[in-house]
Every structure is written in C-alpha cells, then in structure tokens.
Design brief:
By secondary structure, the protein is α+β, with helices and mostly antiparallel strands. Helix content is 40%, strand content 13%. A hairpin with a 7-residue loop joins strand 3 and strand 4.
C-alpha cells in the first residue's frame, strides 16, 4: 500500500520525565550501539525509541516517506512503506501479517490510544489492507497457529543492502530488561545469519517498488 498513510508524521515521542529514566536510556543507547546486529527499542505504538547503527544500515536504501520511515515507527514501515518488501523478505506472510496480529492485540489493550487509532484509520482507508485485517488475519492465525505470530524466536527472511549478508534470515530475539519493560518499551534484535538464498536477491529489483494495495493475501472486494 504505497499511499501516504495519514499524511503527516507521528506526534513527537514522549521523553521519560525522571532524570534517572533519561540517564538509563542514554546508557542503554550506548549499550545498543555496541551490538553488531540490528537492534531497536520500541514503545507500545512501535515508535522507535532507540536504534543502533546496524538497524539504520539495514534500512539505508529505503526511500523517503512522510509517515512510515523505519526509524520513526516500525509498524507503519511494515504496513505502509512501498519499499518494505525490498528489505523484509516474504513481506506479506512473514512480516506484515504477524505485525497486524500484534497491532490488533495492542489496540485491544489500548483501545483509546490516539496513535494506534490513527494507524487503524489508515488501515481502514485501504480496501485490501482492511480486508486482510478484518477477515484474512483471523483465518491466517487459525491456519498457521499462534506461534507464527510471536516475534521472539521467529526466523524471518531479510534482504540486506550489504552484499556480505545479501538475502539471508534473521532470528528475532526479544531481550527486554525489566527496566525497559516498566517504561513500556520492548527491545528486539535481529540476529543475522549468513547469506544462503541468492535467488531472493534477484527478486529484489522486481519487487523494489510496490504500488498501492500490495497485500495479496486477501483478494480485493468485488465491485
């Protein structure tokens, strides 16, 4: 779905009020930067709180977008950015649908959250995405099982811009310490594996820029 979801950037992310919390995040940012693999700290809206250089490098070739940059809100990037499939292999089934499932759970927990409601509105504005969310997603979960939804431990394909990695897999590891969890944050690290699927790299050019309605899991409603 390559439209400008919402037409404006997300609201500025809240900064922890206490000096102790801010100092912790500063030190945690230093820790994050020492990690060789892409690692990111997200809040309950998937706004990016912290991200290391490896995370930025993974998405360095992604084009500009007013609302769905990976360094701003990772959920919006997965759902709405036309370049998402150039980095996230098997984008629909391995990234988009699990993220939609997590979004549905977050919306249930935080029903009145303004940021989540904006994402829900943007989903509803695209017929294919809306059909996937309302009808395709429950069916998919029944078919693949709850384990396919969970981020922690999932092995998912990537198309890394660095040829040393290329078409590879990553294991998503949730390594959130209690202090971050108490702040309402979650840390995910993408543990990269050696490149092993050169055929996917060739498909990168073909899939480089999807047009509107990129989801094909659920057919478009009949006119």
């Amino acid at each position: 779905m390559a439209y400008q979801a919402g037409g404006q950037r997300s609201a500025p992310r809240p900064v922890p009020k206490s000096l102790e919390a801010r100092a912790y995040l500063q030190d945690y940012d230093t820790l994050l930067e020492s990690v060789a693999f892409p690692s990111v700290v997200l809040d309950h809206r998937w706004d990016v709180v912290l991200a290391n250089t490896a995370f930025e490098t993974l998405f360095r070739d992604v084009g500009p977008h007013p609302t769905a940059m990976p360094g701003d809100n990772f959920l919006r990037f997965v759902l709405f950015h036309p370049d998402a499939s150039t980095v996230l292999g098997e984008h629909e089934s391995r990234w988009c649908l699990p993220m939609l499932a997590h979004f549905a759970a977050a919306l249930e927990r935080h029903a009145h959250d303004h940021g989540l409601q904006e994402i829900r509105r943007d989903i509803s504005q695209d017929p294919i995405m809306e059909a996937a969310y309302r009808h395709g997603l429950p069916h998919w979960i029944r078919v693949v099982g709850e384990q396919a939804v969970e981020h922690d431990g999932a092995v998912r394909p990537l198309l890394h811009p660095d040829p040393r990695w290329g078409a590879t897999d990553c294991r998503v590891v949730d390594e959130t310490p209690r202090t971050l969890l108490d702040m309402g944050y979650r840390r995910l690290t993408l543990v990269l594996r050696p490149a092993r699927r050169p055929a996917l790299a060739a498909r990168r050019t073909v899939r480089a820029r999807r047009t509107a309605n990129h989801l094909s899991v659920v057919p478009a409603p009949e006119a």
